[in-house]
Write a structure and sequence with these properties.
Elements: E1 4-13, E2 18-24, E3 29-32, E4 35-38, E5 40-42, E6 45-52, E7 58-60, E8 63-65, E9 68-71, E10 82-84, E11 90-94, H1 108-117, E12 127-130, H2 142-151, H3 165-176, H4 179-187, E13 190-192, H5 207-214, H6 219-235, H7 241-246, H8 248-255, H9 261-272, E14 274-275, E15 278-279, E16 285-289, E17 292-297, H10 315-324, E18 331-336, H11 344-357, H12 361-374, H13 383-396, E19 403-408, E20 414-420, E21 428-433, H14 445-452, H15 455-468, E22 476-484, E23 488-495, E24 498-508, E25 511-520
Parallel strand pairs: 11-12, 12-13, 17-18, 18-19, 19-21
Antiparallel strand pairs: 1-2, 2-6, 3-4, 3-8, 5-6, 7-10, 8-9, 11-23, 14-15, 16-17, 20-21, 20-22, 23-24, 24-25
Length: about 525
């Protein structure tokens, strides 16, 4: 009898439809709420994305493989799996979640799930946004490291890092197989985007980094396995019904009756390439949550690094982002694994470092070494893209929205920063950061980030940046909450044209406490 390996994951949900993702141990028919899909095979694994149509506001469901019920499990103590459509009033988000059994403090997402289990459904978020580092391919658990040693004999793969599709699959099994997380992902629709650790630390930091990696004998297999597994485990569920219908790779996968892994790996290799300032594949996407619109921006694979000007995404992809920042909605959410507004000193340092890395000789090499060691590769390190995003946000903030919120993670501390443009905007503009969900950075991070937010440090690095030729920022920003340290999950609540950011930090196994609350938005005058 076919068995459920992972899932169900409730993914794209709109007013009347939903998609549910599963992994099984063999080829089979997957039936959910009367809708059936056949699995496709990738390597030795089997997957299905089931589309459900004509849904009402609330649908309880089970998962059947070849008509046998496999979920929920017998005698389950978890609330019943349910799909809720309609108004989105609450969104949860965060980034950087190491596997549950890693010794990095209590898992905030696990604790948050336990909190929801005893709460009424109306208090559950209607969406969950995971902003990168869903898995740590370069920092696996001790159990996975031992598994890799047992399965590799005389290979050239790096010790303690995953490379192939099946090895990435093991990471997803570890991080999403936890019972509380598995339940949470079965009842709250989830949107995702990758960051560097989903592939490898510092992924696409610079052209120099890419050249270094290309010289590794295992890198080609690594990028093929990473992107192919990302497409299956994360990206496929980000797509809505119309996008799935237009996706040529998904059509090929469904039509092919044999193993599609070679097809996915070939696609992955092409997606990684940069050709004349363009990428063949975009990972950015749009989701509409009623009166809130999410624009998820790929800040990793979409980078343009070999052209004369460094860009976070290509011109063509940025134009798509700009077009979709316009519309009739109350709240514009820009999902970016990397923050737009950072601690002032660190922001100026990154723009300064970008100029230094362009210099010939030892100066450029030194700046590049500092860039990689200190992870100086956020939006301010792509100064042209940083300014373009700032101009887009300023324009959007005068087009009728009440709030423009950039949702980010990555930097291992949480905060809220509000932007002020020279001409006051109609909308509140804020950078909302929640990081990490489950990861404990070195203790030196805390004083370093506190210092980087200080006015003296900001003044010094702004002065140095000006002397080096870094243009003035197009706006000012001030920190209104934080920095907050520790494992956390953030909530963004909508009440008409107002919003509220709340941060819930893990206070021990299975326990979270509210540590911050910031109100955003204002009624039209």
């Amino acid at each position: 009898m076919a068995k459920l390996v992972l899932g169900p994951l409730l993914r794209h949900v709109n007013e009347t439809s939903a998609t549910v993702w599963v992994e099984t141990d063999e080829s089979c028919d997957v039936t959910i709420a009367g809708h059936t899909a056949r699995t496709f095979q990738a390597g030795s694994q089997h997957f299905a994305l089931v589309r459900l149509e004509n849904l009402g506001p609330r649908t309880e469901y089970d998962v059947r493989l070849n008509k046998n019920v496999v979920w929920p499990e017998p005698d389950s103590e978890f609330p019943k799996p349910v799909i809720r459509t309609g108004e989105v009033r609450r969104i949860a988000f965060g980034s950087c979640r190491a596997a549950p059994n890693q010794p990095v403090g209590p898992d905030a997402l696990d604790a948050f799930a336990q909190r929801l289990m005893s709460a009424p459904e109306q208090e559950w978020p209607q969406a969950l946004i995971l902003l990168g580092d869903q898995v740590y391919a370069d920092e696996p658990t001790d159990a996975t490291k031992q598994w890799l040693r047992d399965h590799r004999h005389g290979t050239h793969e790096p010790d303690g890092e995953v490379v192939h599709f099946s090895e990435y699959a093991r990471l997803y099994h570890e991080t999403w197989g936890d019972p509380e997380i598995r339940w949470l992902l079965s009842v709250v629709p989830t949107s995702m985007i990758f960051d560097d650790h989903d592939v490898r630390d510092d992924w696409n930091t610079s052209a120099v980094w890419r050249e270094e990696m290309a010289g590794k004998p295992w890198w080609r297999d690594r990028i093929r396995g990473a992107i192919a597994s990302y497409w299956v485990y994360q990206h496929l569920g980000n797509l809505g019904p119309d996008e799935l219908a237009r996706d040529p790779l998904y059509a090929k996968v469904k039509a092919q009756g044999t193993d599609v892994l070679p097809l996915l790996e070939e696609f992955a290799e092409e997606a990684d390439k940069e050709v004349e300032g363009r990428k063949s594949t975009w990972w950015s996407y749009r989701r509409d949550f009623g009166r809130a619109r999410l624009l998820m921006v790929d800040t990793r694979c979409g980078r343009i690094l070999t052209a004369d000007k460094r860009q976070m995404v290509s011109d063509e992809e940025f134009e798509w982002i700009e077009r979709n920042s316009e519309g009739d909605f109350d709240h514009l959410l820009i999902g970016s694994s990397l923050p737009w507004l950072m601690p002032h000193a660190l922001s100026h340092l990154q723009s300064l470092n970008e100029i230094g890395a362009r210099k010939p000789g030892w100066q450029g090499k030194a700046a590049e070494a500092i860039r990689q060691v200190a992870d100086l590769e956020h939006w301010p390190a792509f100064r042209a893209s940083f300014d373009r995003l700032s101009r887009m946000i300023e324009k959007a903030a005068n087009n009728g929205s009440a709030t423009i919120c950039v949702l980010s993670g990555d930097v291992h501390h949480s905060y809220v920063a509000e932007a002020e443009f020279p001409t006051p905007t109609k909308a509140t503009v804020a950078q909302l950061v929640c990081s990490p969900v489950h990861n404990e950075p070195p203790k030196v991070f805390e004083p370093a980030f506190r210092l980087s937010w200080s006015r003296p440090a900001a003044w010094v690095f702004r002065r140095l940046a000006t002397l080096a030729g870094v243009p003035e920022d197009l706006m000012r920003w001030r920190k209104t909450s934080g920095p907050h340290f520790g494992n956390s999950v953030a909530l963004l609540d909508f009440d008409g044209r107002r919003a509220r950011y709340r941060l819930f930090s893990a206070a021990g196994p299975g326990k979270v406490t509210e540590t911050a609350s910031v109100s955003l938005g204002r009624e039209p005058q």
